[in-house]
Amino acid sequence: MIVKQLSVFLENKSGRLARVTEILGENNINIRALSIADTTDFGILRLIVNKPNEAYKLLKEEQFMVSLTDVIAVEVPDRPGGLAGVLKILEPYNINIEYLYAFMEKSSNNALVVFRVEDLEKAIKILTDNGVKVLTGNEVYSL
Amino acid sequence: MFRNREEIKEIQLHRLKELVKRVYERVPFYRQKLDAIGFTPDKLKSLEDLRHLPFTTKQDLRDNYPFGLFAVSLEEIIRIHASSGTTGKPTVVGYTKNDIDLWSELMARSMRNAGVTSRDIIHNAYGYGLFTGGLGFHYGAEKLGATVVPVSGGNSKRQLMLMEDFGATVLTCTPSYALHLAEEMEEQGISRDRLKLRLGIFGAEPWSEELRAKIEEKLKIKAIDVYGLSEILGPGVAMECQEQKGLHINEDHFLPEIIDPDTGEVLPYGEKGELVITTLTKEGIPLLRYRTRDITALYPEPCACGNVLIRMDRVTGRSDDMLIIRGVNVFPSQIETVLLSLGYTEPHYMIVVDKKGALDQLEVWVELSEQFFSDEVKKLEQWEKKVEGELFTVLGINAKVRLVEPRSIPRSEGKAKRIWDRRELK
User: Fold this and answer.
1) Distance from A111 to chain B by nearest Cα, in Å?
2) Which of A37, A63, A64 sits opposite B377 (nearest CB)?
3) Is the domain of B307 the same as that of B355?
4) Between β-strands B234-240 and B247-249, what pairing exists: parallel, antiparallel or unpaired?
5) Mean pLDDT of B200-207
6) Residue-number span of the structural domain to which B274 is assigned
7) Are B375 and A69 in contact (CB under 8 A)?
8) For chain B, what percentages of helix, strand and coil (3-state, to nearest 5) are there?
9) One Pfam annotation, family name (chain A) (predicted)?
10) Last residue of a domain, one of B304, B320, B336
11) Contact B376/A10, CB-based, under 8 Å?
12) Which residues pair with B275 in a beta bridge?
């Protein structure tokens, strides 16, 4: 149930983000979700794509600083309080969330939230035990 | 003062003979060097014989860190100063009581020659500490009998207040700080009439005639250039007179030569090359033919001020890759050492120097390497802070670290271009 996320280091200068998306597009790689965390000097682009290993290789060849990061994708009811409900489940277990970002599932009424946590296995167990759906890698890549 | 150059040469020769004898007897480093070329002190007959003697370099000082080149025991040393070396360790110099007296005397002599009198109030904004600037001017000003305000660097608002309240007539600091103060004045709407300043003595970093004109216009003072380096003395090796046409070297104590930095050959007067200095009278750490790496030329012709001491040009550059940032010496190799110590196996970096207002700004661009990459901003920022902390420890000044993408710093054939100096220096 672990999803591979691409993390790409980008300097804050024009054309870098465009270049990443261009490389992916040229190689027929589809972006499922993305988020950017930025500072004044640099940003980290986080991407969920349909072919993470291939994308990793391509970006590496183009000299990008890129890594594959393990994350989980959690289904969250698309209604007020949906995310709060999921976070409330994790709260008592001291699961440290490094970051999260959301994207919409085309086929259903649910939102998907990507979580980056320290102890992935523990988080997966707690969530599934509590009836929250955690998607598998293939489910996410083929969305 | 001296009446003519012959008189100076006579003293120089006498002192040079004494010096060579002294270092040969007291400093094992020099004995070995002289023995290696079969030179004994009695072979020195004329000033021209100096060119047969070996050079001393900053590397020699580093190899003998900290006190290996001292010619006296530590008991006789009453003061230590230091400047940054090419790697982590600083270059250390020691002064005996006589050295400190001589330094004060020469500073007083040069300042008097530049127009400072015992009635002046000297606002000394050079840094006090291991750096020689602050204390060098301080002792010189006291020796001259002027009133010295040992304000040291920083806090420009307070500096302006004190200059006004104490009625400072002479300002001593780096030229960029002088310009910064002038700009601060304009910003705060302080009228120039409120200050009694008439003269400034600026040095410790390269500057240009354009910058001089700017400072003189903004502060309405005469701006005098001063030259020195801690290895030789500190400020007081040379200073301009009121003519502002070259810096008079105190050559009865510091024997200058100009060499071709590549061949080491002595060049004739008037030709540009690297300044080499032999300390004729220093006791603590006397140096033979010290390579300053500063590029200048010498002019023995009489000066309109009447002083016959030889003059040197304003320093126009360096024969090595040393940078002077806010008056502090910075070598690219120091930065490389820090990166290597932090685990970079092949550090790719660029030193970017800029002006923010009048002040120098140092940035170090470092290519992010695989092992330090994280998908978390927090961790990358912590990494930047860590590198900045290490750089501060080694350089003694703040540098901003900016992480850049791999392969984004241009590679060049042979020697990498590590420095991008964007400060204006014409």
Assistant:
1) 23
2) A37
3) no
4) antiparallel
5) 90
6) 79-320
7) yes
8) 35, 25, 40
9) ACT_8
10) B320
11) no
12) B258
Report yes or no: B147 and B158 within 8 Å, Cβ to Cβ.
no
Measured in angstroms, the CA of A104 and the nearest CA of chain B are apart by: 23
In CATH, what number is assigned to the domain containing residue B161?
A: 3.40.50.12780
Model confidence band, residue B426 (pLDDT cutoffs 50, 70, 90): very low
Per CB-CB distance under 8 Å, the chain A contacts of B399 are none
Q: Domains (ranges, CATH) in chain A?
A: 3-68 (3.30.2130.10), 71-141 (3.30.70.260)
Amino acid at B357: G
Q: Where does residue B203 rank: exposed (0-12), middle (13-18), buried (19+ CB within 10 A)?
A: buried
**B266–A contact, CB cutoff 8 A:** no
Distance between CA atoms of residues B149 and A54, nearest Å: 68
Q: For A28-83, what is each residue's pLDDT tens digit? A: 999 999 999 988 889 999 999 999 999 999 999 999 999 999 999 999 988 899 99
Per the CB < 8 Å rule, is A67 touching B402?
A: no
**Cβ of residue B154 closer than 8 Å to a chain A Cβ:** no
Q: What is the CATH number of the domain that holds B342?
A: 3.30.300.30
CA distance B167 to B291: 40
Of the three residues B292, B320, B348, the one that is the final residue of a domain is: B320
- Tens of pLDDT, residue by residue over B48-102, are 999 999 999 999 999 999 999 999 999 999 999 998 655 667 899 999 999 999 9
Q: Indicate if B220 and B250 belong to the same structural domain.
A: yes
Interface test with B, best of A41, A97, A101 (most B CBs within 10 A): A41
Unique residue bearing structure tokens 């002190």? B41
Answer yes or no: is B138 within a domain.
Answer: yes
Same domain, yes or no: B342 and B204: no
Query: How many domains does one find in chain B?
Result: 2
Closest by CA to B230, choosing from B279, B273, B264, is B279
The whole-angstrom separation of Cα A138 and Cα A53 is 13
Q: Which of B23, B14, B228, B197 is nearest to B106 (CA)?
A: B228
Helix (H) or strand (E) holding A23: helix A16-26
CA distance B348 to chain A (A): 14
Same domain membership, residue B226 and residue B93: yes
Weakest mean pLDDT among A4-18, B52-66, B86-100, B374-388: B86-100
